[in-house]
Amino acid sequence: MIPTHTDSHIINAIQQGDEPTFDALFRTWYAPLVRYAVTMSNGNYEDAEDLVQQAFVKLWDQRTNLDVQFSMKAYLYRMVHNQALNRIRSSRTRERYATYQQRLMEHAHEPAPDQTDTELQLKYRKALDLLPPQCRQVFELSRFEALKYREIADQLNISIKTVETHMGKALKLLRHELVEFLVSVVGFFVFS
Amino acid sequence: MQHHYNDIDELIAKRLAEEATPEDLVVLEDWLQENPDNQLYFDQLKQLWTRAPVPALPQVDTEEALLRVKKQIHAPMRGRVSNLYRWSGAAAAAVVLLIAAIYWIQDPAPRSMELVTADQVLQDTLMDGTQVSLNQKSGLNIRVSKQKRSVTMRGEAFFKVTPDTTKPFVIAVQNLEVTVVGTAFNVDNSSDSSYVVVSVEEGKVQLKSKDQTLYLTAGQTASFSCKTNQMTRSQTPINPNVAAYKDRRFVFEETPLSEVVTALSKAYATPILLKNSRLANCKLRVRYNNESLARIMELLAETFTLRIEKKEGIYYLDGNGCD
Lengths: 192, 323
Known about the structure:
Chain A is mainly alpha-helical. Chain A has eleven helices and no strands. Chain A has helices at residues 5-15, 19-38, 45-61, 72-90, 94-98, 100-107, 119-130, 133-143, 149-156, 160-178, 185-191.
């Protein structure tokens, strides 16, 4: 897969050390990447922001040998992902590593304080907590971060087939938990 | 075609995530036609997809974060050091801290401060309370002693100096010394590095070169040639847009479009080119107050019926011009 035209333009500019392009890239992706990084830093926003900033510093350091396979976006997500894994690996407390996945599940979707939740949204978050960790991660990368299957596969070092399996499984399990909260379209037509 | 239940979930997921191939879509369509329950099932999964609780984007200060990243990027020595280096670094830091502490005891006032910009305009307050707007790719260093406030700078900066008669504010740029007591003015050595242009907004400023001294008052501009060391007071009144990079406020009074474009290019650090030289004569009378460049381009296009094109970060303006 060759990166898109706009992306190759961006990649070239970054490789040549063009700071305005770097700034534009940063401004575009900073907030979404922080949102993603929060899920990999126990829900800690400060750590998440630091992760993303370090990823960009690294991007700049390594600009001359960027290896963008799919898209600049996927490359950035991957950098943040790897940065988070490195941080966990280098963390001295074993306990933190052991409970990483578990905490990730607990904290990933603490709603923003001003967010008003519908019942479905509350139940939905609980249902997401019940998914197997990788299954959930794949589903969220697809649905929340809009990454393509091949980009998710690349990021998590799994096959595209595995991504497909996780996605099907996620929807099936979510339906099992949430079916009673879904609007029945047939019923709607009959009674209104 | 018979499908296992798991397969159909995967197929629907692919359709929802826009990953389905044309063949996938045909298979899915067949399955949906098989039985009304299938359609119901599909609708449920589709609802799960559309109503998923996508977390809101976090409230982050992107500009501040970018500033931090740029600071790290431009720091001369950093990163990837071994533990040994880290320890020696810590030891060195401790020595520096110790020395700083000794200074601190001798003179509690902060002694010097440095500001550097890359691609952003920095607004900051110096330790004497002076407000400064530092344009892109500029730098300044201030040192406060008992007698004076000395500033060295490169590039372009606007100062609103806190009055302090006991400590004059002295800026050294190239071979020129600009001395003030309390006033607001702009120093530009960035547009053409062989000249320093000083424009005074309020108060009074003294300019001193090797063999010349000049006083400027509000509304006056002077330029200093770094080659000849000569200063000339500008005859034209101060350009109201001289420091527009700091707040993006522009005042144009029957200004030719060529000059408008120069002022905008500088303030937004974006090249803007006229494709037709007859456009240069179009006169503009308008005020812009912190608009985006894209918005200003739209307004210009309307005023002079221009065609505007943006290619690789450069704006091109084209039109019939004004006679």
